[in-house]
Design goal:
binds zinc ion, 5 strands, five-stranded mixed sheet
Amino acid sequence: MTNAWDDEFKCPYCGADLVSAAYNKHSDVLLVGEFPGEEEVQQGIAFCGAMSRILKQEMAVLGLDMKSFRCTNLWLHTPNKNPECFKMGVEQVLKEAKDKRIIFLLGSDTVKYFTGKNVSDVSGLRVKSPLLSAPVILASQNPAVVFHGTVGEIRHSLKIFKSEIEAN
Ligand SMILES: [Zn+2]
């Protein structure tokens, strides 16, 4: 558990509270989101805010438990202009990605950084990343697109995600 007042969980570059990886440490499946939202920052836990509630709910429909996977974000705090802060998040993803079987990249910034592609071109598809060595890497829109009325694409991506989990 992280505490906002614990120095160990402050960014060494800008002093912001850090939100590091959450949930099942032993899972061979990693979900990578874009950046922690307000609730995540407050609680110091990744994947606990509005976007994650959508994701959790949509996964539950398919019989998947979001918390059974490992979850982290491209940014460990609210994005800023400091390249060192960004690098710290990337390093965390690379560390968490080690030995993973399936990596699920969520959101345009995450997909763009790891694959060089636009999420609209690869959402729901297997992708390749020069930075990640997992046998299966999937791309998806940020589940928050549901708030703009486009739930179909997320459901499609999650079905592909589920079939990859069951196929391996
Ligand atoms: Zn920082």
